[in-house]
Amino acid sequence: MIPRHLLIGVAIMLAVALGMGVFAWRMRGRATQTEPAAAYTQPVAPPVSGPTEQVTLYVAYDDPGILRAQPAHIPLPAGRQERAQELLRALVGLYVDKLSSPHPLAPGAEIRDVYLVDPGLAVIDANAAFADGHRSGILIEELTVASLVQTLSVNIPGITRVKILVDGKARDTLAGHADLSDFYDVSTVNQLVLQLQSSQ
């Protein structure tokens, strides 16, 4: 015969194990309910303060394979570097918009920062989604680079060279073709843009 105190001990241990199982099951249910919200945890940039100004964005159009100068009104802060950031963020915003994008970029693609380094050097820092999700192809990649460089140099005077980083690091290519390992000369890109515009 099993002693009574042993039966009571086993019954208590079974009750505790059952209670822990129910608790764990309920917590798992709550965790699954909150997981979708975790997908939207990217930091939100504060709204840009400053007067709305007319700028010129050089927008890439994939179908004809051209760049078009397009006027836009966007709020711009006073600082030169902050203005450069907002210009490129507005441009990339056009591309990420799935409904009307003439040159689609991957969801989540964005410009993290733009650094203006004297004399005449601008460093564009894009996020990983910008490069990792970029479509591969010589013309597609050239259009992206030329669009960024031309928009920046036309609206921010004094820029002569541009370097593109991804998540703060140098990268060999954008998506297998456009060379990101070197600096882009603004005058050379300007000639490419003129060629792309004249092919309309």
Which H/E pattern describes the elements?
A: HEEHEEHHEEH
Radius of gyration: 26 Å
Question: What general outline do the C-alpha atoms trace?
Answer: elongated
Structural class: alpha+beta
Proportion of residues in helical segments: 40-55%
Assess the beta-strand content as a share of residues.
Answer: 15-25%
Low-confidence spans: pLDDT under 50, at least 5 residues?
A: 35-44
Overall domain count: 2
Average pLDDT taken over every residue: 86
Counting DSSP H or I runs of 4 or more residues, the number of helices is 5
* Number of DSSP-assigned strands: 6
Major sheet: 4 strands, mixed
Q: What is the rounded distance between the termini? A: 97 Å
Main β-sheet, spatial strand arrangement? 3-4-5-6
Task: Give the gist of this structure.
With 200 residues, the protein is α+β, with helices and mostly antiparallel strands.
